[in-house]
Automatic annotation (TrEMBL):
UniProt EC number: 4.2.1.-
Gene3D superfamilies reported in the protein's UniProt record: Lyase 2-enoyl-coa Hydratase, Chain A, domain 2
Keywords attached to this entry: Lyase
Family: Belongs to the enoyl-CoA hydratase/isomerase family.
Lineage of the organism: Bacteria, Pseudomonadati, Pseudomonadota, Gammaproteobacteria, Enterobacterales
Chain segments annotated as coiled-coil in the UniProt record: none
InterPro entries on file: ClpP/crotonase-like_dom_sf, Enoyl-CoA_hydra/iso, Enoyl-CoA_hydra_C
Molecular function in Gene Ontology: lyase activity
Organism the protein comes from: Escherichia coli
Protein's name in the database: Carnitinyl-CoA dehydratase
Pfam families reported in the protein's UniProt record: ECH_1
The keyword Lyase is annotated on this UniProt entry: yes
Length: 76
């Protein structure tokens, strides 16, 4: 149970856009072979994945890591 709580806390502290994209990717590709799933993700069909790549949070994550601080996610 402690592991489940720890995982849940990590998800709560994660970037909201990234979590939305991961959920969308899992829902749409979990039954596909890996190669097909990668093609699908790169095709641009998904709503959340492209927005994550060009978001403020995409800049904040690596910046916070480089500065050795916790990221401040804005969800945009």
């Amino acid at each position: 149970m402690d592991n489940a709580r720890e995982l849940a806390q990590q998800l709560v502290n994660s970037a909201p856009l990234a979590i939305a994209a991961l959920k969308e990717i899992y829902r749409t590709t979990s039954e596909m072979p890996v190669e097909e799933a990668y093609r699908y993700i790169r095709s641009g069909v998904l709503k959340h994945y492209p927005s994550v790549l060009h978001s403020e949070d995409a800049i904040e994550g690596p910046l916070a890591f480089a500065e050795k601080r916790d990221p401040v996610w804005k969800g945009r």
